[in-house]
Write a structure and sequence with these properties.
Blueprint: E1 4-10, E2 13-19, H1 23-43, H2 49-113
Antiparallel strand pairs: 1-2
């Protein structure tokens, strides 16, 4: 496992870390945290760095929890949609089967309602012809 040494500046202090995380990612996190602490500290000139850091931490935790709640709500909504889709597919299959059954029933009723047809007769009757063993000469 590769360890990286990284120097981060947060809230006016420098921190030296050894990590396996992506160094650029850690710099992005540190920059974001530093901006939040600075913004909070600027809102009250009498606020010390520790208080600004604690308030920034609370703000970040609040954001994280709200996003987790949003994700949970989205998962529930997606599950609800999936359940509805499953029920709709089941209903569609039942309706297709019902349609097939009704078509078969109608086909049977139509056959019963058709008048009986006379058998088809050939255009010539074999009895009208005499079969001989030897053909007559012409």
């Amino acid at each position: 496992m590769n360890y990286y040494k990284v120097r981060l500046s947060i809230g006016g202090r420098t921190y030296h870390l050894q990590t396996t995380e992506n160094v650029e990612y850690l710099h992005e996190l540190a920059d974001d945290l530093d901006r939040r602490i600075t913004k909070i500290a600027q809102s009250d000139a009498a606020m010390d760095a520790a208080t600004a850091a604690v308030l920034a931490g609370l703000d970040l935790l609040d954001e994280a929890r709200r996003r987790m709640e949003d994700q949970s709500n989205l998962r529930l909504q997606i599950k609800s949609y999936a359940d509805e889709a499953t029920a709709a597919n089941r209903e569609a299959a039942e309706l297709r089967q019902r349609l097939y059954d009704l078509q078969a029933e109608m086909d049977g009723q139509i056959r019963m309602e058709l008048p009986a047809q006379e058998p088809v007769r050939p255009l010539w009757d074999p009895e009208d012809f005499e079969i001989v063993d030897e053909p007559d000469e012409f």
